[in-house]
Amino acid sequence: MKHLLEIMTCLIRSVLSDEECGVMPKIRECYGKEQIPEEVLERMLVISSFHGMAHVVGTALERYNLLEDGKIKDEFDKRIKDAKNKFALTDTEFERICFALENAKIAFLPLKGAVIRDFYPEKWMRSSADIDVLVHKEDVEKAGEVLEKELLYQKGKSSAHDIPYTALNGMTLELHFDLVEEKRMPQAEKVLNRVWEYASCPDNSCKHEMSDDMFYYYHIAHMAKHMEEGGIGIKAFADLWVLDNRKEFDENKREKLIIEGGLFEFEKAAKALAAKWFDGVKPQEDADTILTLEKYVVKAGTYGTLDNRVSVSSANKGSRGKYLFSRVFMPYEKLVLIFPSLEKHKNMIFFYQIARIGHIIKHGRVKSGLEEAKAAEKSGKDPESEKTLEMLKKFGIIK
Question: What is the pLDDT of residues 96-143, one digit of tens each?
């Protein structure tokens, strides 16, 4: 709908900055009155929820008395209440985890939302789906024992870089032992491999803090990774705006890591889009690229879309056929994560592939596989998809 994104991002900025930000003049300019049409509010609820920002948008709408009593107001109120309750739950679990790891003398680094929420006007405004903590590889087993025996967490299935744990209350912890995820972006990941060199513990505790330049770099690299996986939502750009506007930093240190990691072009575009949304500043260069990025991000939502992911992955593999083959017959380096015993029996890889396919059928994942095949069939066939792929190549995210 006309003006929806413009108004919604203006509302978000008014909350992030704790300033008026010209919300009411912008609404008058767009709609000719100090009121947002009901159909726009309905759509705004859907889109902001899709991007995990409905509680922030709802907060702004209530501040400016833009919601009348009724269903829409009730829904925004519910998102705000849910966000506050989720934060209380997450914060309690985070403190329990920190206390347990501290007692066990295990060095750890909080990641993502647990860090960036400190720079939001109120911590509950930065929602998180789970808790992310990094430990040294050699401490993973010990940390897992602490979580399972002392906090009664249940261990999930390991990946190449983390192990998920679930608390009795349903809260999820991702225990990272590596910030490099399946060697997706080699140049960018070389910088992430040095993360502990940029960590310190001012109070001599086991709880470490990432330096500003590394945390900023990690955020940009994480955004880039999700761009390859199918997209990343508005919340990540709100985080970027917050990191650039609500804390002090050394721009030269940040830039040095960004250039070293080959993320300069992507960071420049991401900052331009954040400025467009939250500062109302039109891009001065590469306007077409920023528009393509905007469409990709808005379509993706918080977790990306299957169509986006398949389109990008197909381009990376060279063709849709090669992509589908790689999805049916998983590469050794990924298959061994599912079946660790494969490392000792590499000559039996075919049988492990068959075992994996049987696992997919057994657990009812054939339907999702067929949906992926359909997405692969139509990927790259429309002009917008081609623009997206060219954009990601420009950013160095895909080849």
Answer: 999 999 999 999 999 999 999 999 999 999 999 899 999 999 999 999
Structure token pair of residue 88: 């209380």
- Give the torsion through C-alpha atoms of 166, 172, 175, 178, to 10 deg: 130
- The distance in angstroms from the start CA to the end CA of the chain is 34
Alpha-carbon gap, residue 21 to 277, rounded angstroms: 12
3-state secondary structure (DSSP) of residue 380:
coil
SS3 135: strand
- DSSP helix/strand/coil, 160: coil
Nearest CA to 158 out of 172, 170, 176 is that of 176
List b or e across 306-317, with b for residues whose CB sees 16 or more CB atoms inside 10 angstroms. ebbbbbbbbbbb
> Which helix or strand (DSSP H or E) is residue 231 part of?
none
**Residue labelled with tokens 């692969």:** 376
Please, which pLDDT band fits residue 299 given cuts at 50, 70 and 90?
Answer: confident
Distance CA 32, CA 42 (A): 19
Q: Rounded to two decimals, what is the model's pTM?
A: 0.84
Half-sphere exposure for 282 (CA within 13 Å, toward CB): 2
